Amino acid sequence: MRFPRLGAFALSIAAVNAFQDTSPFILFSTSDIFTSSPGLATASSIHSKLNAELKTCPSDIYVIVSQPGVSSTDYSSKGSTPYLKKWASGEDKSIRSRFTVSEVVGEIDTGVLVEELEQTCGSGTLSIDASTGLFDIVDDMKPRVIKVDFPAFPQGQERSTSARVNDLFLYNLINMLPSTKYTVIYATTPLSPSHNHDAQEPTSLYEMDHTLSPLVHMDLKRDVSVHESASKNSSNSSSLPLFEKYQYFTPGLFMGLLVSFLLAMILYVAVSALGSLQVSYAAFDSMNGPAAHKKQQQQQQQQQ
Q1: pLDDT digits over 84-98, tens only?
Q2: What is the pTM for the complete model shown?
Q3: Could you give the CA distance from residue 167 to residue 178 in angstroms, rounded to a whole number?
């Protein structure tokens, strides 16, 4: 019973890997162009079909959209591109033909499509950089090709936001077209290899864990234990008392106390020396002082 399950699991992995380098393609028009939509096609086959159907120039305006770095999952979430889903599903009654391919193998060169429409239909080209958000629509009825270049979606949760912003931009652009006979070609390119590598990184690490030798595997485990013990020590140190967690009696504090003690001893000796000085009270008496004795001697000499 396990072998059929393993076989189905292997087939599912192969299918996922096969669709990693694919991206969707959407075409809708107010003219009668396509009638069927395959689920999987190559970029070359779609390009050939576009040349065959657009050589009659069925529309007045051709809007060619280039969206790099996406997959079909970017458009499958609810509310990501409401206007694009409305056009591609046929809910908009003005859309008479639509052609959608969820998985396109390869990339469709939108620049070549623009050149072919210019040569076949004599259309003028207007390029729009959607990153600036500014565009001008001409009012003449000359066949025209409008090339819209959307920036790549950012990584993470902002991808759905960027998809909604681009969808609103395309909606405003179509509403400003001077003619109701238009064809929109929405071509995308698959995700970059770096994005696929980031998405597959957990799987590759899991497989590498089983292919390592036992010695290396033991070293890795030992290293992990060291990090775990370090984290445990850091968590235990946070619960220690203050006098064990911090050092209060630093060497600088010790040297400051020692110098303060020496200065206090010097001050004590100086004060003691000044206090030990002794002077007799007779030294301050003018009658018994040296001057008084000298005056008495002078008086005795005069009397003699």
Answers
A1: 999 988 888 899 999
A2: 0.57
A3: 20
